[in-house]
Amino acid sequence: MLEVESLTVAYGGLRALTNVSIEVKTGELVCVVGPNGAGKSTLFKTISGTVLPRSGKVLFEGVDLSTVSAARRGHLGIAHVPEGREVFRSMSVMENLEMGAWAEAGRSRFAETLERVFSLFPVLAERRDQLAGTLSGGQQQMLAIGRGLASRPKLMMLDEPSMGLAPAVADTIFESISQLHREGEMAILLVEQRVAEAMEYSNRGYVLQTGEVILSGKFDELSKDDRIRRAYFGM
User: Fold this and answer.
1) Which of 78, 79, 136, 225 is close enough to 148 for a disulfide, judged by CB 3.0 to 4.6 Å?
2) Residue 112 lies in a domain
3) Is residue 197 domain-resident?
4) Angstrom distance (rounded) from CA 121 to CA 180
5) How many separate domains does the chain show?
6) Over 50: is that where the pLDDT of 235 sits?
7) Is pLDDT above 90 for 103?
8) Which structural domain, as residue segments, surrounds residue 127?
9) Tens digits of per-residue pLDDT, 27-44?
10) Residue 215 lies in a domain
11) What is the CATH number for 156?
12) Rounded to whole angstroms, how far apart are CA atoms 118 and 12?
């Protein structure tokens, strides 16, 4: 479904990504982990089109995304839930979800999607008329995910969905991500600081360090690597 091939991205002459290659197959949950500054968010921004690569390719269902504007990528079925939630604070919960449904598939199936979002996050149904800026951090994260779902994506990219949340709330977010994966209707590309949980839920993982993929594989393979055990599992 998604193929990133030898991607290099630079800001002001400094490389953020160097020859990065990853793949996400239909229905997979793939995690990308690494320290701050490793290039994880830059990777997502390049896939969604808000950052342009210096070289390399991003293919989505065989389409070279260099020929597709950032605004059109949502219509192809790519949703990006950015780090920090970034909901429309002065709009209500319902208005945020309606904004998410701007893609063609989202508009045509909005009623069905709304039922799905409210089933996944019942608190959003209870607070549908409340301004997004008055929600708690966890509720805003739920809304951000729901807004992404409203576009009926084939691929959802989630950037640090548990950041800044209490452990119990983060667990709820992870369970919702796991449920979406089990439903199998879309692929998920996840950047996450809670590495053990991210890898456990994922089919495969990639480890980024200073803009390069240094390891990739399934959870049991990565967890055996001494570098991963020391850096992320405290072993």
Assistant:
1) 79
2) yes
3) yes
4) 12
5) 1
6) no
7) no
8) 24-52+70-232
9) 999 999 988 889 999 999
10) yes
11) 3.40.50.300
12) 43
The strand pairing partners of 3, in sequence order, are 23, 59
Lowest mean pLDDT: which of 104-108, 138-142, 159-163? 104-108
Torsion sign over Cα 116, 122, 125, 131: negative
Q: What does the alpha-carbon distance between residue 198 and residue 179 come to, in Å, rounded to a whole number?
A: 14
CA-to-CA separations, 218 to 106, 191, 215, in angstroms, rounded: 32, 15, 10
> What is the pairing mode between strands 212-217 and 204-209?
antiparallel
> Tens digit of pLDDT for each residue in 187-204?
999 998 888 788 888 999
Residue 5 token pair: 């091939």
Count CB-CB contacts under 10 A for residue 224. Answer: 10
198 inside domain: yes
CA 116 to chain centre: 18
Query: Largest Cα–Cα distance of the chain, in whole Å?
Result: 50
Distance from C-alpha of 17 to C-alpha of 27, rounded to nearest angstrom: 26
String of DSSP letters for 163-203: TT--HHHHHHHHHHHHHHHHHTSSEEEEE-S-HHHHHHH-S
In 3D space, the residue among 48, 45, 43, 42 whose CA is nearest the CA of residue 60 turns out to be 48
pLDDT at 173: 93
